[in-house]
Amino acid sequence: MTRYLSVLVLALLAATAMAVPAQAHAELKSSNPASGAALAAPPEQIELVFSEAVQLPDGDAVTVTGADGTTLPVTQVHAVDRTITAKIDTAAAKSGAHTIAWSARSDDGDTVNGTFSFTMTVVAQSTSASAPPSAVTPSAPVSNAPPSTTSSDSGGVPVWVWILVGLAVVVGAILLVRRKPESP
């Protein structure tokens, strides 16, 4: 009986050592605009690059909220491999701090999400007829900020935790069974 239980424990340990799946979720690695960026003009497109392939979640994948609480219209949201892109209606953009809230579905089915902020200064259009039109060269976003941080919301206890708890219970039960009663 003891030999049978020992073999059973070893078989369970071997099976769980091979069966534990990777519990990594997609993480936001970079974005354009970057977290903390100071832009001279509104971005026409948002680009979010993740650590692994992602899919669009149920609901909004990208929302952009201005300092005054208004939400900018976001269209043409696509997920291709590790990148989510979305177009922004720049006509509605105003100067100030903006927050991008994003959400993506990892390959394992869990949804990860996060937020980051950037600021932009929108130059008011001049209606003066005396000022000649000037050529404006678009500039790339200037930022020394690190990539945005993410928060993931997996919605439960990882499978590997339950496997370890189960193994601890089995080993504890085996040790109790193997204990020899003390002789009087």
- Provide the CATH top-level class of the largest domain: Mainly Beta
What is the number of domains?
2
Into which percentage range does the β-strand content fall? Answer: 25-35%
CA distance, first residue to last residue: 24 Å
Q: Which architecture of the largest domain per CATH? A: Sandwich
Task: Work out the helix count.
Answer: 2
In CATH, the topology of the largest domain is named Immunoglobulin-like
**What would the principal axes of the Cα set say about the shape?**
rod-shaped
Residue stretches low in confidence (pLDDT < 50, at least 5 long) are: 126-155
The topology string of helices and strands comes to: HEEEEEEEEEEEH
Approximately how much helix is present in the residues? 10-25%
Annotation, overall tally of beta strands: 11
The whole-angstrom Rg is 27 Å
Average pLDDT figure: 75
Domain CopC: 25-119
Region (Disordered): 129-154
Transmembrane segments: 159-177
InterPro entries: CopC/D, CopC_dom, Cu-Rt/internalin_Ig-like, Ig_E-set
Kindly describe this structure.
This protein has about 180 residues and is of the alpha+beta class. It has 2 domains: about 1-25 and about 160-184; about 25-125 and about 130-155, Immunoglobulin-like (Sandwich). It contains 2 helices and 11 strands, in the order H-E-E-E-E-E-E-E-E-E-E-E-H. The strands form 2 sheets. Strands 2, 4, 5, 6, 9, 10 and 11 form a 7-stranded mixed β-sheet that branches. Strand 9 (about 95-105) and strand 10 (about 110-120) form a beta hairpin. Helix 1 (about 1-20) packs antiparallel against helix 2 (about 160-180). It is rod-shaped. The protein starts with a helix and ends in a 6-residue tail after the last helix. Its main location: other. GO terms for molecular function: copper ion binding.
